[in-house]
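A favour, since you know our structure tokens better than I do. What I am after is a single protein written out in full by you. Could you add the entry underneath, on a fresh line?


***
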Amino acid sequence: MPFQFSTTPNAATAPPKVMTQPNPTQPSPSESFAVSMRNAASQAPAEPISSAIKMSAQDVDLFYGAKQALKKVSADFTERSITALIGPSGCGKSTFLRCLNRMNDLIEGCKISGAVTLDGENLYARGVDVVQLRQRVGMVFQKPNPFPMTIWDNIAYGPRLRGIKNKGTLGEIVEESLQGAALWDEVKDDLKKSALGLSGGQQQRLCIARALATKPEVLLMDEPCSALDPISTLKVEELMRELRAAYTIVIVTHNMQQAARVSDKTGFFLLGELVEMGASSKMFTDPSDKRTEDYITGRFG
């Protein structure tokens, strides 16, 4: 009879089976996330410089045709502070951001009701100059969008539209705006070169400088770091903290650590509703609404 190999180990000689038990000291993913959020929140700015309300929204409803995208959204934005808007994709946060300088007016079939005020003035009242409004409420978009012209001309474009023609005055505005965007030292010798030759992070700071050149009072930022590398993201975050001393800033972000790091207040959007808004230090450690906690801890979104 031929010899046969057995693939079954002898019970007497087989090594004992070791049962692995979960380490009771190992934090769960949600606990680890909560720790990272607390660490990020510890880097947030100090108390807001002012408690005055710069901008406010009351019962804003927005429809794209028959579809309702915003439902009775009310929020206050404090002067010289940073407010972050978070929430899953399609929840209405970017739509709401565009309401703050009437960018949704450009979308066919869009209907808005409610009120948005800037220094107490209703931005949706009859007779409001929308061009002037967008000078007072600047916007920086998700993807850097420098104009296909020189760095100098990019910054001077807005002031020229406002009627400033003196080259010396324009030069001062260009330098001041690039200084404000922490970009001057990097480009001061290349102002006549195409802005399209800058890196992605530099292009985004150029767009911020272009917005600053029109002397806005409020700066809206729609996911300004989503297309940037970590080093460029850090520079933009540092810039936001510096600009906070002079501007009211509202930022939409999917990066909750970023919201915790840079913002004074955070608002959580879900299905077109503003679920809650409060101090970022509290929102990321002890939110009032269970839906906010579930989103922040990664249970959905």
Observations:
- Strands lie at 53-64, 67-78, 82-86, 110-118, 121-122, 137-140, 218-222, 248-252, 265-270, 273-279.
- The chain is about 35% helix and 20% strand.
